[in-house]
Amino acid sequence: MKPAAFRYERPDSVAAALAVLAREGDDAKLLAGGQSLIPILNMRLARPAVLVDLGRVSELHGIRRSAGRWHIRSMTTQAELERTPDLPPALAMAVRHIAHPQIRARGTVGGSLAHMDPLAEWPAVALALDATLMLESNRGTRLVAAKEFIVAPLTTCLRSDELLVEIQLPIRPGPQAFAEVARRPGDFALAGSVLSWPAGARPSIAVFGMGTVQTRLTQVEAALAEGFRPGPELRALAYGEITATSDVHATAEYRRRTAAHLVERLVEQTCKSR
Amino acid sequence: MQITLTVNGISWSGDIEPRKLLADFLRTDLRLTGTHLACEHGICGACTVLINDQPARSCLVFAVQADGCAVTTVEALSADGLSKLQKAFVERRALQCGFCTPGFLMTGEALIRSGQEITEDLLREHLSGHICRCTGYAPIVAAFRDALNVSQSER
């Protein structure tokens, strides 16, 4: 349970990190907080030739709020987010469900998104809050919507020479809600949902914990926009739209059913405050 | 790679293989065996130390990442005899085999150093990052209540 040997690079700037990625390509793996990657290395599920430690890249730290959006630099730790006041409510709620305080002290926002665990909260928050992700490489910068960033479990649209540098969240007034079911606090989700219903706009509903990738429930969103309200029909619609896989912790059936209940509950909560 | 760090206030410099975990560096190179390794993937909490006053799973940090940092291990807590929390652990029988204990104590130290108000909810949230096979947790929670100023208000 010790990692295989690797070459270690510790760039002190984004430019230096991009130069390493451009040079090493698929042989390189980026190290952010290490809370997902280092277990993988310890168990030798991955043996990158080069590990690129982003821990000294100061340009990747910081949270700021402009007129219309939050700008969260990718090496921001979950704990730093937790200490930030006035975040979008769904994000503030979600962060407290990520693992344990000791993991949140080092785990990063960018690391969670780049790792793309299908059970993770952050990709669902990014979907529900219409996040834009800023990717940089020596070839330039591109802005990618969360939906495009999420490709498959453990797979994003990041190219081997690209670095996720910032996550942007538009600030939209309106109720938001979050719910997660896990066996014990800090466990991986068995089911979860994130909802945002900005004033005068359609709701955004994302689910996670399904085993399949985090998704928006566009059919449920359309139904709600047309006047559907919480009840067995809404739950059935959500259930029908969700796909899940089974594993040792829960069956696909359990995940879908539970997620459908959570979606209904979040809609109920939100309808009360609209 | 050449690194310099302080461990329990004492500076250390030397050449460390990049893949060496901080936990193994502490245990093997510095003979500070109070930090324990069990799961080696961040779940159990037995390896918890402080890095710059923040709790960290030392099984999920490479020693080279701690270059320039101040690391604190369980050995620091009893520099002047057992700490208040350690004494509470003894009084409350909050350890049996003692394997998980250093991790719990370091989470306690992190809470103390943070200076934040420690409510019952906050305490239980931080303690839930540790697994104990022996005590059933209740004596551990009791020891923390005795030693830290735990207020009963909800977070």
Task: Describe this entry's structure for a reader.
The complex is a heterodimer of chains A (274) and B (155). In chain A, 33% of the residues lie in helices and 23% in strands. Chain A contains 11 helices and 14 strands. Chain A has helices at 14-24, 37-42, 78-82, 89-95, 101-104, 109-115, 121-128, 146-149, 218-225, 232-241, 252-272, and strands spanning 7-9, 28-31, 50-53, 63-65, 69-73, 132-137, 140-145, 150-152, 155-156, 163-170, 176-181, 191-196, 204-208, 215-216. In chain A, helix 2 (37-42) links the parallel strand 2 (28-31) and strand 3 (50-53). In chain A, helix 9 (218-225) runs antiparallel to helix 10 (232-241) and helix 10 packs across helix 11 (252-272). The model of chain A has no long low-confidence stretch (mean pLDDT 97). Helices cover 31% and strands 17% of the residues of chain B. Chain B is built from 5 helices and 7 strands. In chain B, helix 2 crosses helix 5. Chain B is globular, with a radius of gyration of 15 Å. Chain B starts with a strand and ends with a strand. The A-B interface holds A 1-8, 10, 31, 34-35, 38-39, 41-43, 51, 53, 55, 79, 99-103, 105-106, 184-186 and B 1, 17-19, 21, 24, 40-42, 45, 48, 54-57, 59-62, 64-65, 107, 110, 125-126, 128-129.
